[in-house]
Design a protein that fits this description.
Layout lengths: L1 H55 L6 H20 L2 H21 L10 H36 L3 H5 L58
Helix pairs in contact: 1-2, 1-4, 2-3
């Protein structure tokens, strides 16, 4: 009888070790996935001051539009400091909307198309948006898998006790997923704009290894 008890205890201990290690691995993968989003968001924020400086000489009368972009970037940087995916997603959507407005207004200034800095910023924006969308999907996939682990029995009985909490998804409005297209023809630009990258040293979500991923909610 004693051997049976010992055997049960050993099995329970092995299950606890296996479950704990599995949760640690899933959490680390999720944190690593967030760090990739972190990098792309900061890059987007870093491009915006350069964009504003480039276009303001040609769009001096569009002060409100330029201020909206600058304020939206500041809001996105502030949201990034919270580490809350919901707040970050909301702020980034506002930033995307302000950028769409900026690019729409730029249609009235065809001389901008001759500016290499402007076209380079657009190309950098497109590349950053592609990477950000990939990182977003990768992160959300890891969040889904990790949160499922926390919810299924019997893991759910001990996950909270061991200090594991679910992560929040990083969402964006469907209208913000497409990269804004800047055309200088007679047709208006696509309304499904996206957001831009940042200027080094000007804020953004904490870099990987500093404040880490968003706090588990």
């Amino acid at each position: 009888m004693g051997w049976i008890v010992v055997g049960i205890v050993v099995l329970v201990v092995l299950w606890l070790v296996f479950t704990y290690n599995g949760l640690i691995s899933a959490r680390n993968r999720t944190q690593e996935a967030w760090s990739e989003i972190d990098v792309e968001l900061k890059r987007r924020h870093d491009l915006i001051p350069n964009l504003v400086n480039t276009v303001q000489g040609y769009m001096g009368h569009e002060r409100g539009t330029l201020e909206a972009v600058t304020n939206a970037r500041a809001g996105a940087v502030a949201a990034g400091a919270t580490g809350d995916p919901a707040k970050i997603g909301q702020a980034e959507n506002v930033l995307s909307q302000s950028l769409r407005s900026l690019f729409a207004v730029s249609e009235n200034y065809p001389d901008l198309k001759a500016i290499a800095a402007f076209t380079n910023l657009q190309e950098n924006l497109t590349a950053t948006e592609d990477k950000l969308e990939f990182s977003r999907r990768f992160y959300n996939g890891n969040v889904r898998d990790y949160n499922i682990k926390l919810q299924v029995l019997p893991t759910s009985l001990i996950a909270g006790v061991l200090g594991f909490k679910p992560f929040g998804f990083f969402q964006a409005d469907d209208t913000d997923r497409a990269v804004p297209q800047v055309s200088f023809g007679n047709t208006p630009p696509s309304s499904s704009g996206s957001s831009l990258p940042p200027a080094a040293g000007q804020g953004g979500p904490p870099p990987p290894g500093s404040a880490g991923p968003p706090p588990q909610s």
